[in-house]
Amino acid sequence: MLFDLLGVTPQALFSQLLLGLINGSFYAMLSLGLAIIFGLLNIINFTHGAQYMLGAFGSWMLLHYTGLNYWYALFLVPIAVGFTGVILERLLISRLYHLDHLYGLLLTFGLALIIQGLLRNEYGISGKPYAIPEQLRGGQNLGFMFLPNYRAWVIAVSIVVCFGTWYMIERTRLGAYLRAATENPTLVNAFGINVPLMITATYGFGVALAALAGVLAAPIYSVHPNMGADLIIVVFAVVVIGGMGSILGAILTGFGLGLVEGLTRVFYPEASAVVIFVIMAIVLLVKPAGLFGRTV
């Protein structure tokens, strides 16, 4: 009766909610990495979309050139891309910590263009297919909808990674050291903690999160050089809505906005591409620091 009043079928509604939750999983993981890098290092990392794309491309390259499958990529690619982030942080980004945020944004935006341009020149703009691993093919018939196994896997992994990262940063001694190092590095350094190494590792970890999201996305979306550019603007909107630098805000807002986007596709498809930006405008008018952000 309720679905008749809404004018949709249960299958259509739950399918769009599933799609929204899948998108929300990637929004949450990517915005989490951005929130960590900005909240702890004060760097607006516009390279994040390109690093997400490198995660997907790294998976495809491992399979295409070495024959290593998805499970190897899930472990190796985030480490490799995270290591490239460490190199970038040490060589370039570390020089900008005491400058205005605009310098970091311009540098990382330029790096993103370089990475995308290099891969575009080498592989073109057509999508590269990446097969779902055999162990995760098929799905479950829930009666009211069909749930693909791989989609369920992506949602489960993203939830575990996101809330595990939040717990590590907010509830452990390592996270306390990290937060203290960003607020008063001189004092923390006096306790014998290598603050520059900790900051570098933090940036590398944020980059590895983006690469992990890319590996998870490779079997769902076609792998192409512009896939990060298509997503990063939406993810920045998610971070702004949640509150710049808020770890929990990035996670909850990412999943929540994915579901809102899915519902919009059901009831007003024409607005699905802009609903997140409309919400961002409203939130900035009502609470400029974001839903979970703190006013300075």
Describe the structure.
The protein has 296 residues and is mainly alpha-helical. It has one domain. Helices cover 72% and strands 2% of the residues. It is built from twelve helices and two strands, in the order αααααββααααααα. It has helices spanning 2-6, 10-41, 48-66, 70-91, 101-123, 149-171, 173-183, 185-190, 195-217, 227-242, 247-267, 275-286; strands at residues 139-141, 146-148. Strands 1-2 form a two-stranded antiparallel sheet. Strand 1 (139-141) and strand 2 form a beta hairpin. Helix 3 packs across helix 10 (227-242). The longest helix has 32 residues, at 10-41. The protein is globular, with a radius of gyration of 20 Å. The mean pLDDT is 89.
Q: Can you tell me the number of structural domains?
A: 1
Mean pLDDT: 89
Query: How many angstroms does the end-to-end distance come to?
Result: 49 Å
From the alpha-carbon coordinates, what is the Rg to the nearest angstrom?
20 Å
Helix content: over 70%
Q: Which strand order spans the largest sheet, edge to edge or round the barrel?
A: 1-2
Write the element-wise H/E pattern from the N-terminal end onward. Answer: HHHHHEEHHHHHHH
Structural class: mainly alpha
Beta-sheet strand percentage? under 5%
How many individual helices? 12
Give unreliable regions as ranges: none
Quaternary structure annotation: single chain
Main β sheet profile: 2 strands, antiparallel
Which term fits the overall shape? globular
Q: What is the count of β-strands?
A: 2
